């Protein structure tokens, strides 16, 4: 994950190959699902972590990357939606835009969608 800018992974759970889980700084669980699309998932994870670390470097929660082309961040007490557009081309993966909205509630949602899935 270091190559995608995701450092400080403190635990890796490979008990189920279709339910890969990582722990970031012993405070955020990352649900990768399968290893399919790992480059995209890692790029989205890095962007969500960057946004969440802007909120607080003490924040705890879960990033769910198990749904292809999307990332969801969940924490107690607030709802945060982070939208990131990620493109993949011959030169690799790049982020073209991002935004965050926070409202009160009990779930947090961070969403990332692959442009190939939009308006086909």
**Structure classification:** alpha/beta
Distance between the termini: 30 Å
Q: Into how many domains do the coordinates divide? A: 1
**Could you give the count of β-strands?**
8
Question: How much is the average pLDDT?
Answer: 74
Coarse morphology: globular
Strand content: 35-45%
Radius of gyration: 14 Å
**How many helices in DSSP terms?**
1
Percent of residues in helices comes to: 10-25%
Strand order of the largest sheet: 1-2-3-4-5
Can you describe what's shown?
By secondary structure, the protein is of the alpha/beta class. It has one domain (about 1-115). Helices cover about 15% and strands about 40% of the residues. The strands form two sheets. Strands 1-2-3-4-5 form a five-stranded mixed sheet, covered by helices on one side.
Search tags:
120 residues; alpha/beta; three-stranded mixed beta sheet; 1 helix; 8 strands; 42% strand
At a glance:
The protein is of the alpha/beta class. It has one helix at 38-55, and strands at residues 9-13, 20-24, 28-33, 61-64, 72-74, 78-89, 92-104, 111-113.
């Amino acid at each position: 994950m270091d190559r995608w800018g995701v450092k400080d992974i403190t635990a890796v759970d490979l008990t189920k190959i279709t339910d890969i889980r990582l722990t970031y700084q012993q405070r955020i669980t990352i649900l990768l699902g399968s290893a399919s699309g790992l480059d995209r998932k890692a790029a989205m994870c890095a962007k969500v972590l960057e946004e969440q670390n802007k909120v607080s470097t003490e924040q705890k929660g879960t990033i769910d990357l198990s749904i292809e082309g999307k990332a969801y961040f969940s924490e107690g007490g607030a709802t945060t939606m982070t939208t990131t557009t990620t493109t993949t081309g011959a030169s690799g993966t790049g982020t073209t835009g991002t935004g965050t909205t926070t409202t009160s509630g009990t779930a947090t949602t961070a969403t990332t969608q692959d442009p190939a899935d939009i308006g086909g």
